[in-house]
Amino acid sequence: MLTNSVLIVDDEAPIRLFLRKWLEKTGLEIREAEDSDSALAAMEAVPAGVVFSDVQMPGRDGLWLTAEIRRRYPHTAVVLATGVTTVPPSVSLRAGVLAYLVKPLAQTRVMAALETALRWHAETVTAGPSPDDVGDKLDDWLDSLAEL
User: Fewest 10 Å CB contacts: which of 1, 21, 68, 134?
Assistant: First the structure.
């Protein structure tokens, strides 16, 4: 199902507030969670079309959350953000992430990542991939963008 909502997952309230202010201007429904467990609870209530998640959080990290979202909600696009560069973008992209942002976040990069994520979400919903082939479709889609 195509959804016009974004879930922001970050243990730092100021980061969630920043992202909320930027993303609310798009007219999308914006929800927040402070950790992976509350993010999955929010997704169970109403799945989001896009999830913006921090990588490093107390408890389960953003890479774990990404794997769970890929498994449970294959049509949801994921954007990861982090203050450290220890997770190379190539690793994150292979884990099912459409964009990888390094903090401090720049509004132009956040909005570009959102546009990419929304487009991917709409295309996967329209194409209707099964949970088993979402990873392959994501890789194909990312490869097609690289060719542009």
Answer: 1
